[in-house]
Design goal:
The complex is a heterotrimer of chains A (311), B (342) and C (445).
Chain A: H1 4-11, H2 21-57, E1 60-63, E2 67-70, H3 74-80, H4 83-116, H5 122-130, H6 137-148, H7 154-162, H8 175-200, H9 204-212, H10 217-228, H11 230-245, H12 249-254, H13 268-277, H14 282-310
Antiparallel strand pairs in A: 1-2
Helix pairs in contact in A: 2-14, 3-14, 4-8, 4-11, 5-8, 9-10, 11-14, 13-14
Chain B: H1 11-16, H2 20-35, H3 39-42, H4 47-55, H5 68-91, H6 96-101, H7 113-159, H8 165-176, H9 180-193, H10 201-207, H11 211-224, H12 227-235, H13 240-269, H14 272-277, H15 286-296, H16 306-339
Helix pairs in contact in B: 2-4, 7-10, 7-11, 7-13, 7-16, 11-13, 11-16, 12-13, 13-16, 15-16
Chain C: H1 3-26, H2 38-47, E1 49-54, H3 60-70, E2 74-79, H4 85-97, E3 104-108, H5 112-117, H6 138-144, E4 145-146, E5 149-150, E6 153-154, E7 160-165, H7 166-171, H8 180-193, E8 200-201, H9 206-215, E9 221-224, E10 227-230, H10 236-250, E11 254-255, H11 262-270, E12 275-279, H12 282-289, E13 297-300, E14 318-321, H13 329-340, H14 342-350, H15 358-362, H16 364-367, H17 379-388, H18 400-405, H19 407-410, H20 413-416, H21 421-438, E15 442-443
Parallel strand pairs in C: 1-2, 1-3, 8-11, 10-15
Antiparallel strand pairs in C: 3-14, 4-5, 6-14, 7-12, 7-13, 9-10
Helix pairs in contact in C: 2-13, 3-14, 8-10, 9-10, 13-14
Classes of the chains: A mainly alpha (311), B mainly alpha (342), C alpha/beta (445).
Amino acid sequence: MTLLPTSVRAASPPPAPTPRSRRRLRRQSLAGWGFLGPFVAVFALVFLAPIGYALYLSVFKDKLIGGTSFVGLENYTQALTDPRFWEGVGRVGLFLAVQVPVMLGIALLVALAVDSGRLYGKAFFRISVFLPYAVPAVVASLMWGFIYGTRFGLVGNINDAFGITLPDPLSPSLVLASIGNIVTWEFVGYNMLIFYSALKVVPRSLYEAAALDGAGEWRIVTSVKLPAIRGALVIATIFSIIGSFQLFNEPSILQKLAPNAITTDFVPNLYTYSLSFSGQQHNYAATVAIVMGVITAIVAYTVQLRGMRKG
Amino acid sequence: MSTTDLPGPSRPTDRRGGTPEEAASASYRTEKEAEAPSYRTEKPSGTTVRAARRRRPPSTPLNPRPSIPLTLVTGLVLVYSLLPLVWLVINSTKDQRDLLDSFGLWFGRSMNLFDNISRTLAYDDGAFVRWLLNTLLYVVVGGGGATVLAVLGGYALAKYRFPGRRAVFAVVLGAVAIPGTALAVPTFLMFSEMGLTNTPWAVIIPSLISPFGLYLMWVFAAESVPDELLEAARIDGSGELRTFFRIALPLLMPGTVTVLLFSMVATWNNYFLPLIMIKDPEWFPLTLGLNAWNAQAQTAGGEAVFDLIVTGSLLTIIPIVVVFLLLQRYWQSGLSAGSVKE
Amino acid sequence: MTTTRRSRRIAAAAAAVCALALTATACGSSDTSTGASPGDVKSALEKGGTVKVWAWEPTLKKAAADFRKKYPKVKIELVNAGTGDKQYTALQNAASAGSGGPDVAQIEYYALGQFTIGKTVTDLAPYGASQHDKAFTKGPWTAVAKDKSVFAMPMDSGPMALFYNKRVFDKHKIAIPTTWDEYVEAARTLHKADPKLFITNDTGDAGATTSLIWQAGGRPYKTENTDVKIGFEQDAGTKKYTATWQKLLDEKLVAPITSWSDEWYKGLSDGSIATLAIGAWMPANFTTGAASAAGDWRAAPLPQWTKGSKDSAENGGSSLAVPKDAKNKELAYAFIEYATTGAGASARVAEGAFPATTADLDSAKFQETKFPYFGGQQANKIFAESARNVGTGWSYLPYQAYANSVFNDTVGKAYVTATPLAQGLAAWQQASVKYGNEQGFSVNK
């Protein structure tokens, strides 16, 4: 089990012997920050400073006419009561509830299948399923834009060939599912590999013991393999949750094809982008981003706690 | 592409297992090895274990045999993953006309792949090549730098006790939760103030941070570098830096390669940040360049070059796929140790 | 990794944050009035220097090359910094940062308002821009000039025309519509004859909608300094537009394909999108984007709201402006003047740009140009006629770029649900009013 807090504990060096402990601690401290320093410095520059600046921006208001003025927490009250923002939050919530389990489920099944050794061409499976992760979002959108086209795209081709009318994947009722499909496509392989690698190091002795007890293949999966890779499952879930809350590239690119289904406030991240980039409302956009960040952090943290407790 | 072309743990046995007899005898050998009590310590990679399991005639959890139904079912996911890529390959053989009016999943009237490639490379005074070189620069300096920082940082978190250590990752994870799109404007204003916009640094500096890389190296260092080794080196009077380079770094190599791969892919596919930071096509990465070509068809008087975009997309993917294939061996062993272990 | 290097980085980061805090309140205060004169422009040209241009219009390449030949001391750096919205965002960002922007920027007419009101572009009148007022056609000039100020120079224009696929119209023996009622009729006939054919495509496009309202005589926007009036409900032209367009939507006679997508180009290529009512700059896009349909398409005058009239409107078109933070404004103006007037403009027209200059519009060479793509038709005659008949008195909102960005959030509902178009426009108006008031304008008060 190497999810973060455990690994921290596991990774802690044994307590230092008391005699030299003071000097040791100082030396440890110095060397530790020495190694970590470069990361922290750059991190401060590209993450903390902009966040600090965003916090600063969030208490001001800048108007095209009238300039900048201090407004205190007004932007926050506005964000907390902004129906356009909460509608977007609801949408990513739904997305998260459906897409993340589906994606991780498929990834897990493929990982188990590859790991079971019961596939022909295992290496081919592994690399092929992973390939979409290497495709830049711009390119992926081009491909899926084609596939989703009801008139000239693949959906259209299928409709023509079979004389049927498939529902339009880019219609308002289906577009969220279509986006979910793209995200799933992009990240199934990535998650599959994380799971697969975790499965690879499950000690064989555990299987042997279970097999000797007469456990079947499925039984071994549920009672040996899955518990053994719980850490990977939890960390993949957390990163998927953060990814879902930050959903942006796919809706933003598909917006060109389905402008009426994907509105500018479709997901919170698109909303902040539109506020900032079309409306010049940098202050309010910063506020919405901060609120969204807090929500994400809370959800991710809750999942981590829950995931840990069961372990 | 066939299985045997792919490097990776299963390759040697794939080569070996030609006829059933050979396969059977091969698994007989490994079976005997597997029964040796010292098996786990002698063959820690686990490679031969599954190779052995795979070839055994009656399929049991311990001795699985390839199954056609399972392969077919999992094959659905494979088709799902590959179909859009097949579309890309097929369509990069078409000229503009075929692209617009022939069936998407089959070849057009003529074969234009090589013509498309040469035109893609030459269009706009060879802009594609320039963007490719830029991307390489960003990948090497940005992705490479991210790896260095993550390795050093992860090592520090795993092997030293110092104040603030526990807070670091919490802060990193919390910061990652803030949507990047909204931080773009503040970051832009800052970088502009520092005179970094429109320079390669505007892309490279933010690429230097890989939170997932830090996490991975932290876990990996905790697992793969024994404290006793470091302690012994210190007792011998080795300085901390020297200890790191002499003792720890070689042990960290698989994890390092993993992080390198992930940060390279991230930098290669980086789109949003350069979009805001770089306005001069001279410094565009490939993703921005392709998008600019795409946008060109959307402006009055602009030339529509869908054929070049599709071909360019294919060319953009190829290098990263090649790197995957070449390095997947390291990258899996790195991940295995990094993600989970009992 | 040494300690000094690390601490320097931290210090640099800290300095950057402080600098930000200072600029955040200080930006937007720099003045745009200068003591410039046409004479300064001349001496700037003699001195030479570099002009950085952000533009995506392709014929500017030619203008830049010619300019360099004429004034070897001046270097023109032509950069495509993104098109439309992306470039405006970059310009606004550069203006907030106070640096990093270009000396010359391409800005579409509809978006110019937000830059003039925020004083992020330079008044070009002191440099001699006002003397050109007679050189340009009415529509573009009124878009860039206000009172005694000239905020940009018209670079091209987009008087509207109807492009139609003659092959499709001939095959189904449909007459070219001259009124919008006939257009609806043609749409029905066409779609009935072959359900795969649509008279046009539309998924909600703010530019197209406002242009057609403009043609119908509607003037929903009125701006007087910071007093803004938005009135779609009472506007007669808007009513004409919604009544007609609602029929097309209700009967599903327009293809739900978004303009400029590759699907759209496919539709133009294979004839399933049979007409486009769009700006006269479209031929260049036809030639490259729908190459396989060469010979099928023709241009015709825009259908009319009242039989027998000749009303037209502008659709698209751009200007060149000088941002407030430009380093060498005299030189920047010199290039703009060259590229938009006289020989520079004519050279660009020869390259395929649609002129905003009356001299080019009226020239025999321009009017008699035969378009091989349109089967040898002298299409410019139709376009020039349209340019002369553009309705006067139209103005966009001073924040039209924002309004257009939320068009599909509001009016878009009419395209995907049973919401009537008029109701969609009312919602659009509401969103525009709200934003305007939040931004310190006095809208509909």
